[in-house]
């Protein structure tokens, strides 16, 4: 769900009621219980039982409604029929099996399996076969409730199924005259009778979609609103094996929800879907009687948002270079003109973060203050200045990178071109939004942004100010602001619309996004930056570089995390001096095996550790090659960020610079220089340790690709007859 920046769409409390849920009715359908060939899906059933056991042990009261008996019985009777068939029967194998007989045979087999699985998990279960006629009897309904209540108190899981073997209806799927018509409606009825807190309907898809789930344009509906969706959604065929399908599930869900029982339709194929639902995770489709109150603002789908950004970017690319440059200058002016408004919203974020008990370093990174820039914040004036610098840089779009004459009168050009649509997920710093947005405009890309919740108001006002400066013929939808992190999964599925994802934040964030999408991801993992001090290093220079690399901004990804020192420096007093200066600055030291014993400091639990604080690891190495080997060994988990050598030995420096396989390698300079602004890129969307496309600080060039432009005068291939290729490089 997407909203306007200043709206409160209720997503934060949309599923907050889950924390009060105790009694849950779970319905599992035939498509989940059985495989496509009709055989039992034992693995899925085992995973289901393990989930229910876990919830049972946590104090939840679980009631299970299961389908699958008819399908299982049909499979077994077919096998028995085949075994007992004569040769003549085998030559004419078509025969019909009575559905009620299938139900009778399958029910005992299904319950035997449930009993075996639950017994293995030390859980007791009970069997309850019912028909709709049973519920016409008030005494039966009362006794049913009392029996189930007693069973739940004993932590027994009651298992219900409609007794199809003795049902009096001939076409239960079509006949809607009964009290319930299938196991979906039975589950809804039981949820009401037993006063459940939640009904979970497990399906073979993730939930209710706006169209066929196989259609890439269909999107998952997280919250069903009867007034909105009832007339918009059409349903396909019923279940491949059962008699319900999504139509039956939605009907049952609507009835239960509007009677006061919240319902979630979600996948029964996932091994932890019920647990995630009860944790309040936004999976599946929620049905709730108050759902219409949570979506009072205009919604924009993920695909629509991405498509709008692409269309706007194409209009931006078609503009003259001077017009694109003017947009950037207008954005800079707008930021300065609205500085007081931006400051008010930003201060509200800072105050909220302080009240929430966030770490001081994070609170400091939130601040957008007037005045001099520091390592913790960038004032509006500095942001505006960086945008103007970006505007004055060489035009990046359409640059001819290579020009070749293929044949007489046939000229080929390789030119720079925007990537298309970028999705940037970043944390904490609202100034990142300004830098990323200005880079997107300069490079002609469409942009979707998701910032951290701690900077919600700052990001919203900055987005509003920036998009207000974009001409109407381009459209403010060039840059979209994502309202909630819960909406990211929808965007990560749009590999046909979004061209690149750049996560800018913690290693956990980067890893989660890489595991969740087919879209190329440009990002970095841990920033384990090393400084190696060689035996020929100048003492004062080495001290300055090491102290700056660690203390200038300890939380930055380009801060030193491991200090490597040549063994000769441990015996001449230099290492002791350096250690004393680091400790004097408040740096906590951890040692490798050699350094910890020599310096009497605690041994580091791992060399692969990013402190992001006033702490680092120290180790002693034999020479420059040992330093390189250490960096490669302990940077093998794809860190390869920034590494530095301090030495006066030119040969050692070249060995290090050519031997270390990192995104950035420095000689006699602090690792803190690895930054887009310091590299003269104007701004950066982040630092990449990927080996495909851009690497290191990513500025405008990292947001471009190439394309080929061929100019001819009527040439045709015609089997290459008569074409004389010259393949001659031409001057640009």
UniProtKB/TrEMBL annotation:
One protein family per Pfam: AA_kinase
Catalytic activity: L-glutamate + ATP = L-glutamyl 5-phosphate + ADP; L-glutamate 5-semialdehyde + phosphate + NADP(+) = L-glutamyl 5-phosphate + NADPH + H(+)
EC number: 2.7.2.11, 1.2.1.41
InterPro entries xrefs: AceGlu_kinase-like_sf, Ald_DH/histidinol_DH, Ald_DH_C, Ald_DH_N, Asp/Glu/Uridylate_kinase, Glu/AcGlu_kinase, Glu_5kinase/COase_Synthase, Glutamate_5-kinase_CS
Superkingdom assignment: Eukaryota
Stretches assigned to the Aspartate/glutamate/uridylate kinase domain: 22-267
Family matches, as NCBIfam families: P5CS, PRK00197.1, proA, proB
Cited function: P5CS plays a key role in proline biosynthesis, leading to osmoregulation in plants.
PANTHER family: DELTA-1-PYRROLINE-5-CARBOXYLATE SYNTHASE (PTHR11063:SF27), GLUTAMATE SEMIALDEHYDE DEHYDROGENASE (PTHR11063)
Entry protein name: Delta-1-pyrroline-5-carboxylate synthase
Organism per entry: Hibiscus sabdariffa (roselle)
